[in-house]
C-alpha cells in the first residue's frame, strides 16, 4: 500500500531570510534521501514558516524496493578458501555461483525494508544534510552532549505515516517523534494532535498559522494593497521586504500607520530606507508615485490602539534620527567629506580610499569625470551612509544637488556603483558609465596584481561580479566607453599609478586582468545570452590576443550562433576543416587575391567567389556557402600541395585567405 508521510521539524524561530531558500533545500535533500534508500513515492511537498519545516511525501510505499544485483567474486582460479569465504559472506552455497569471463558471480536479492524501520535514519540524515546558511548546536540533557547542527534548537519532531504516528528516537536531536504540533506562538497554547496533512493544515489555520510561505506572502500583498487602495494610495513594490515580513509572522495582521508631516521633508529614498531597514515598514505612495505620509506594516498579533500608537511612536524616533543625520551632513561640503577619505582603508595591501580616487583620476578624461571621481566616495564619510550603507551613491547625489554641482556630475555620483550584478540596470549617463568602469577596473587590477583571486565558490571581494559588470559596461552600454584607447591602456595606466603610490603589482597583471575579464565575457555569452559554449570559445579564439572589441565579440557570437542553426552551415564548417587540414603546419605568407592567378578552373573559381565575399564584407552568408562548396570541390579535384613550389604556394595562400575571411566574419569553426 501507498500512504502519506508527514514530517514536521518544530524549532525556535527560523530567521526570515533563511526560509525561502529552505523550502527548495529541504525538498532536494529529502528527495535524495528517499531515492538513496529505494523508496517509491509520487511527489514531495515542503513548507517552511517561522517555527517549522514540514515535509509531505505523497503515495509513499510501505516498503522500499527489492534490489537485484550481481556481485563479482574471486577468479575461477582463486584458492578454494577465497571462494568459500566469498560464498559465506553472502550467505550462498557453491551451486549459486555463476561463472563468466574467468570470474565467479553471485545473484544477490535484497528484500525491501519497511519505511517504519527506516524513518529514524532518514530523519537523522535529513538533520545532518540540511544546508543552513548558519546553524548552531545546543545541549541535550538526555544525551549529556551537544546536538547536531540545526538552524535553531529543535523542540519536537512529528512523524505520521498513513494516519498513524511512528515513534522513533532521534539521537542527534534528543527527541522521540510524535503526532503533535503547536499553533501560533502567542495566540494558541495547546498541543495539537494531527492525523494527516489535511487535518494538519486545517488545525494550524484554526490556531493562527498559515503554513504555506507563498500563500501567506500573497495574502499580505493583497490585503495591504487593498487597504492602501481604500485610502487612494498605492503600495510600492518591494519583493525583498515582502519576503522578509512573510518569514517574520505565522499569521499576518495588516496595519496602516501615519508619518508626521515634518518628516516628509526628508528625501524620499531616506524616508523609505529608514522605514524598511529599521522597522520593516512598507512605503505607500500617491498614484503619481510621490511618497504619502502613511506606511504599511505587518504584525504577528492583532493590533490594538496601544500597539498602533507604539508603531507610530517608534517610527517617529527613527525618522528623528534620520532628520538629524541629514541636517548635520548637509552642513558639510562633499569636498570636506572627501578629504577624510585618506583615513579610510580600501584594502590593507592597496592603500586608502583617497589613493583609489587618485588612481581613477589617472585614467579619467573630461572635466565631469574628474569632478565625479573627486566626489563619488565622499558620502561614505556622512552620518547618513554610516547609518544606512545601502544609501551610498544616493546620498552623494542628493548632497551634490543641494551644493549646486553640475547635474551630470550629480547623476554620475549615484550611477558609478552600477551595474551591481548581472541583473542590475546600467548607468544612463556616459560619465556615470565611465566612472563605474574606472572604479571596477581599479579594483580588479589591484586585487589581481597583489595575488588575491577568487577560490572555488568563495569570492569575498566580489571580483567575478566586478569583471562581469565591466563586461556589461563594455558590451551593453549605448556608446563605447573606452573612447580611442584599448582596455590594455587603462590597465597599464592604473598599474603605473599603483607603482607611483609605492604599491608593487605582479608584472603579469595586465595579462591576468585581461584574461580574467575575458573569462567573465565567456560566462556572460553562455549563461546570459544563451550562446553555445563551443561557439563562445570559437569567437574568443578568432581574435588576435586578449585585447579586443568586446561589443564586436558579442555581435560575432550572436551571428555565429544564428548561422549555426542553418543546414548550410555544415558546408562552411567542413570546408574550413578541410582547408585547415591542407595547410597544416605550413607557414603561409599573406597574399592579396589580386596578386594570385590560377590556370586550374577549380582554383580560379575559388578566387572569384572569395573576391565577391570580400566585396560584400562578409555580410552575405550565402556567398560563404558558395565559397565553401568551391573549396571542397577544389580539395577533391586539385592537388593542392603541387610538386611545383610556386603553384603549391599560390594554392595554400588562396586557402589561407578563405580561412582568414571565415575567422574575421564568422569565427574559428
Mean pLDDT value: 92
Largest sheet: 5 strands, antiparallel
Uncertain segments of ≥5 residues (pLDDT<50)? Answer: none
List the strand order in the largest sheet. 2-3-1-9-10
Helical content (DSSP H or I, runs of 4+): 40-55%
Q: What's the domain count?
A: 5
Secondary structure class reads alpha+beta
Radius of gyration: 35 Å
**Tertiary shape:** flat
Total strand segments: 20
* Total helical elements: 24
Keywords, separated by commas or semicolons:
four-stranded antiparallel beta sheet; 20 strands; 669 residues; Alpha-Beta Plaits; alpha+beta; 24 helices; 49% helix
Provide structural commentary.
The protein is of the alpha+beta class and 669 residues long. Helix content is 49%, strand content 14%. It has 24 helices and 20 strands. The strands form seven sheets. A five-stranded antiparallel β-sheet has the order 2-3-1-9-10, covered by helices on one side. A four-stranded antiparallel β-sheet has the order 15-17-18-16, sandwiched between helices. A three-stranded antiparallel β-sheet has the order 4-6-5. The model has no long low-confidence stretch (mean pLDDT 92).
Brief digest:
With 669 residues, the chain is α+β, with helices and mostly antiparallel strands.
Q: Topology of this protein?
A:
Blueprint: E1 2-11, H1 16-36, E2 43-49, E3 52-61, E4 67-75, H2 80-89, E5 98-100, E6 103-110, H3 115-129, E7 139-140, E8 145-146, E9 154-161, E10 164-165, E11 169-170, E12 175-176, E13 180-182, E14 191-193, H4 197-206, H5 213-229, E15 234-235, H6 239-248, E16 253-258, H7 268-279, E17 282-285, E18 291-299, H8 305-330, H9 334-339, E19 345-347, E20 351-352, H10 353-362, H11 367-375, H12 383-387, H13 394-402, H14 407-415, H15 430-449, H16 463-476, H17 487-500, H18 509-528, H19 533-541, H20 550-563, H21 569-583, H22 601-615, H23 621-637, H24 645-665
Antiparallel strand pairs: 1-3, 1-9, 2-3, 4-6, 5-6, 7-8, 9-10, 11-12, 13-14, 15-17, 16-18, 17-18, 19-20
Helix pairs in contact: 1-3, 1-6, 5-6, 7-8, 10-11, 10-15, 10-17, 11-14, 11-15, 13-14, 14-15, 15-16, 15-17, 15-18, 16-18, 16-20, 17-18, 18-19, 19-20, 21-23, 21-24, 22-23, 22-24
